[in-house]
Design a protein that fits this description.
Helix 1 (18-46) packs antiparallel against helix 3 and helix 2 crosses helix 3. The protein starts with 17 loop residues before the first helix and ends with a helix. The relative contact order is 0.07. The protein has 2 domains: 18-160; 178-247, no CATH class. The protein has 5 helices and no strands. By secondary structure, the chain is mainly α.
Length: 248
């Protein structure tokens, strides 16, 4: 018949106290939930459309032609206010090139600004998530200490429990939760043990009282008979009968 193996405790590399394990689990859960919320928020922000008029295909084509034409002339007009002078080397009017470059540049600048905002959002969110994880670990440590305070009282009472301290009761106050039920059960167990030890003490006292009288009679009969200088057989038989009656 196979004997079931005893359950082993947590590995030695894990924290052995429940308070530390509760703190780590609380912080880990907060980190997981916070990371999931951060991912959802980042996805929603990244999916927002860029509210900038998109350049038309004609503007994109015109901007490309202006870039190629002005590259051959040695200069490319920058996007911004339209200069008053129009270079004669460009086959395309400079004003039209400026408007085309402004439309294309606005879209590029909007996308760059959006990417920069997303990068800052991710960076600041990760820093805030790390800081709040540490704070949640501290709060978990305090909460674990408050929750385990009645358990510490129960443990101390169990260590003090003996035949001389069974009259002590926890009398835990508070809501009718699992800890209150555990404390009440422990008090009931102490009460039953106290009653059992009281019965045992009464039995020992009664047995001692009941045994004291016949033992005294037997001892007296033996000592009186043996104190005589010459004991006859009749005296020994009388002493033996007294001892037998006392023993019965």
């Amino acid at each position: 018949m196979r004997v079931p193996r005893a359950r082993r405790g947590p590995p030695r590399w894990l924290p052995q106290t429940f308070r530390v394990r509760f703190t780590l689990v609380f912080a880990a859960l907060f980190l997981i939930v916070g990371a999931a919320l951060l991912g959802i928020t980042y996805s929603l922000v990244a999916g927002l459309p860029v509210k900038v008029p998109k350049p038309t295909p004609a503007q994109q084509k015109l901007a490309l032609e202006c870039k190629q034409a002005n590259a051959g002339a040695g200069k490319v007009p920058a996007a911004g206010p339209t200069p008053t002078a129009t270079p004669t080397s460009s086959p395309v009017p400079f004003a039209q090139c400026g408007r085309a470059f402004s439309a294309v540049g606005a879209e590029i600048a909007a996308h760059q600004q959006r990417n920069q905002t997303l990068a800052h959002l991710l960076e600041y969110s990760l820093i805030a998530l790390g800081a709040m994880t540490v704070v949640s670990g501290g709060l978990g440590w305090l909460m674990a200490g408050r929750v385990l305070r009645p358990v510490s009282s129960i443990t101390a009472a169990a260590r003090r429990a003996s035949d001389r301290h069974l009259g002590e009761r926890l009398a835990l106050t508070g809501p009718k939760d699992e800890l209150k039920e555990l404390a009440d059960t422990f008090d009931e167990m102490l009460e039953r043990l106290d009653a059992a030890f009281a019965v045992q003490r009464r039995f020992v006292a009664d047995a001692s009282h009941e045994l004291r009288t016949p033992l005294t009679v037997m001892r007296t009969a033996i000592e009186v008979t043996m104190a005589k200088p010459a004991c006859t057989l009749e005296q020994l038989e009388v002493m033996a009968a007294k001892v037998a009656r006392s023993a019965a």
